[in-house]
Amino acid sequence: MIARINHEHAEREKLEQARQELLKRKQALIAENKKRKDDLANLDQDLERFIDAAKPIQKIFEKEY
């Protein structure tokens, strides 16, 4: 009976350690996803500025001579 309790305790400790490692990995993935999401948002803003800056050039090419 005591051996069973000791074995169960060891298994629970091992599972808790695995759970903690998975939580750390989850937090790292969440942080990485947030960084990528922010990078994409910034890229979207940069692209909008680029398109706005190119409008005068586009109007010049649209003129018929």
TrEMBL record:
Superkingdom of origin organism: Eukaryota
A Pfam family: FmiP_Thoc5
Protein name as it appears in the record: FimP superfamily domain-containing protein
Residues that span the membrane, as ranges: none
Subcellular compartments: Nucleus
InterPro entries cross-referenced by the UniProt entry: THO_Thoc5 (IPR019163)
Subcellular location, principal: nucleus
GO cellular component: nucleus
Gene source species: Ajellomyces capsulatus (Darling's disease fungus)
Coiled coil residues, start to end: 5-46
Similarity comment: family membership: Belongs to the THOC5 family.
Keywords noted in UniProt: Coiled coil, Nucleus
